[in-house]
Structures are given as structure tokens and as C-alpha cells.
Amino acid sequence: MSLTLKVKAPYMQPAVCSVFAMFSGSTTQVRNLLVSVVQQPLGLLSSQLEALKAAPGSVLQIPLKISNPLSDPVRAALEISTPPGWGAVVKDATGTIIAQLRLDSGAFTQATLMLSVPREASPGTYPITLTLRGVDPYFIEKLTINVTVASSTPALRLTTPTPFVNTYAGKTAQYQLSLSNLGDSDCVASVAVSGLPQGYTWALKDAQGNVVSQVYLPAGGSLNLYLAVSVPPLAEPGAVSFQVSVTAGSTGDSLGLSLGILGSYKLSYVTQNFYVEMLPGSTSTFQVTVRNDGYSSLTNVKLSVASAPSGFTASVSPQNVLLLKPGNTTTFTVSVTADPTVDAGDYYISLVLSADQVDAQSRDLHVFVKPPSTPAYYAVLAAALLLAGVVLAFRKFGRR
């Protein structure tokens, strides 16, 4: 027959004990067993990080695992020992600060040690000790993590997926910038733009749309910024190169960007009512106003007469406008002369507006010839007819 003797020793009490086992029957047998109780780590508190490096003013997040490998449920309080001026809390997965917890046998929970390094911390190695103190049953489990504080510097890197952007004069171009701190120290980075021509303006915004000129960047962190460059309305088509730079103390980085200015050409009639009245044999003037509604200057702006009805002559002054800037207007004067023999009625003179940069636009000038209604008109008409007869007679009989 074989027997198994189970001995349960209390936690945290190392000792050497004698255990007497007595077997009674027809005879009595006594055995003296020597039991050594050895204190060993219980394995309730662990972390994959045993030592790490940090910069003054940094905030560390260290993963922890709190488990219960014992055969009994445990209830324990969690204590943290830090150097003076350091801040530390342990939070569970929901963000709740852990002060005391209960775990059944075999259960575990994931936690995070939030550790704040003072900005004035001197270089050196500092132990952070976590103590899990058992309330029921009693035990003490400790875990020490060494944090080495070292003098460090930031290392800034500036990149963009859009180094070249096109836009129109009078519009705004936007660049997405990615700013990273590859160093081991937090920093406040200043951003500046240089090389833009006069009249161009810029603004830097964060992801929330706030206008910024400086941004906080933790060690190893990165963020996106958005650079908006406004182009003046009178800017001519072409390409503009400029630089955006970022600095923090003695470190910095710069990035070359290009901006393409696209020409936007549009020539419009301001005058809407193309109508004029006149009498046969008279001359009338009509003014046509046009405007440059684009974002670039127009050259050789011209209003010309494409066609006129029989019995009419038309001319335009001035013949052309050499330069018309965006938003500006100019006025042409159209002179229309009707022959005395023109019948009363509606007539149309075709006008064409053009410039070197735009397609020609046609508009019809409506000319209404009013019927004669006064004796003076008949006298003028008779005189005109008499003059015409004299001219014909002179051509036929003049030198005989």
C-alpha cells in the first residue's frame, strides 16, 4: 500500500519543520519527516519590460500582468514606490486606477503602469517598485523596473505626399505635411515658410483646423499639419518654389515645395441690352462694356464688326485694348450709320468680342430704324434725292 502525505505551508514563512507520521496496527511504526519551507516568488506580478530609457518630462506606459497561480483566491492591495517628484498609477483595461483587486485561482488581468518622469529629473537610473500585498491570504510580491533617465535631444523630420500643387490665381493651395520626432526627447517645434513672392500669404493648421505656428511633439511621436498658401488674384501663370522649415532648439528640418499657378481666362459682356434706335440717314453710337472675369490678364482685347445689313456702316473705337487685368472693365463705342434710303424696321449688326487667350464671343446689336414722321425729314430726303440727281446728271453731261 502507498500513501500520500500533503503538507500545506503558509505563504511568506520560510521554515524547517519536523513532521511525525505514526502508523498503528499490530505494531506501531513512527516516521520523522523533515520539511523545508522555502520562500520563492509567487509569480503574481510580472512585466516584459525590466529596464527602459526615458527623457526628462516624458510619460511612460509599461504593460503589466497580474495573475493568480495559487490554489486559493487572493485579495491584494497594490502599492507603488517611486523617486520623489515622480508620478505613477496602475490602470486596468478600462482606465480605472487599481488600488486593490481580487483574483480567483488561475485568473489574471492586464494592467498598465503610467509613469511620469519629472522635467527636472537628473540623469541616472531610478528603480520603480510595485508591491502586491496580500490581504487574504497574506503574502508580499514585488516587481522592480529600472528607468534610466538620460539627456536627450529631439530629431525632427518633415515629409509630404504632395510636394507640387496646382491652383488658380486668387485661390488657395493646400499641402499635407507630416512632422515626426525621431529623437528621444519631447519638444515644441516652430514652423516657418520662406521664399514666397510678395503678395502670397500662408497659414498652418492642425488636424482640428486650428491655426498654429508651434506644435508640441513627444519623443517618437508624429502628427499631420496642413499648409494653406493663398495666391493673389493678379498672379500670372507659372511655377513658384518655396521652403517650409521646422526647428526645435538645435535640431530642425526643411522641405522644398512647388506651387503651379494655372491661368484662368474669362471675358464677359457687362452690357446686357444690345438695342439702339435711329432714323434713316442718321448716325448713332452705342457703348459696349466688357470685363475680365478670369484670374489672369488678357491681351489684345478687341470688339469688331463681323457683319452689318445692307445700307448700314458700323465701326468700333478703340480698335483694341492691349492689356485688361483681372476684374477690370473697358468700354468700346460702336458707331452705326444708316443710309437715307433705309426702310424703317429691325436690323441686326453682328459684333465679335475676342482676346488672345479666349475664344471669340458673338452678340447681335439690335438696330431699330424709326419711320420718318416730320416735314423736316421729307425736306432732308428731297435734298438728298436732288443732290443724287445732280451728281448723276453731272456724270452724264458734265463735260459736253
From TrEMBL:
Membrane spanning stretches: 376-394
Domain Alpha-galactosidase NEW3: 56-133, 280-354
Keywords of this entry: Membrane, Transmembrane, Transmembrane helix
Short name of any one Pfam family annotated for the protein: NPCBM_assoc
UniProt-listed InterPro entries: A-galactase_NEW3, Ig-like_fold
Name this protein carries in UniProt: Alpha-galactosidase NEW3 domain-containing protein
Species the sequence originates in: Thermofilum pendens
